[in-house]
Amino acid sequence: MEKKTILKIFASNLRAERARKGYSQEFLSEKANITTEYLNRIEKEKYSPSLVVIVNLAHALDVDLNTLFPIGK
After folding, report:
1. Is residue 46 over pLDDT 70?
2. Of 4-8, 54-58, 68-72, which gets the smallest average pLDDT?
């Protein structure tokens, strides 16, 4: 799978889950211990987050990693 495709899937799932929970970018970024600007750029597919950031986002959203990053699909 190409990097661009992976980022697109992750960003889309992240935005959808954040919206489903009713979280603002500010609220989620605070819970995940990242800046709002960084979260914004992840959601716009501008930045590729580290594994640590992906795990922190999943924990902040209280979802399984597979929800944000469906491996093998």
Report:
1. yes
2. 68-72
Residue 8 lies in a domain: yes
CB 60 within 8 A of CB 31: yes
Sole residue written with tokens 């919206």: 19
* Radius of gyration of the chain measured on its C-alpha atoms: 11
Residue 72's pLDDT is 65
Give me the CATH number covering residue 14. Answer: 1.10.260.40
User: Over 90: is that where the pLDDT of 69 sits?
Assistant: no
* Structural domain includes residue 52: yes
Closest Cα partner for 55 from 69, 43, 41? Answer: 69
Q: How far apart are the C-alpha atoms of 1 and 52, rounded to whole Å?
A: 21
Identify whether the C-beta of residue 13 lies closer than 8 Å to the C-beta of residue 53: no
Domain-located, residue 9? yes
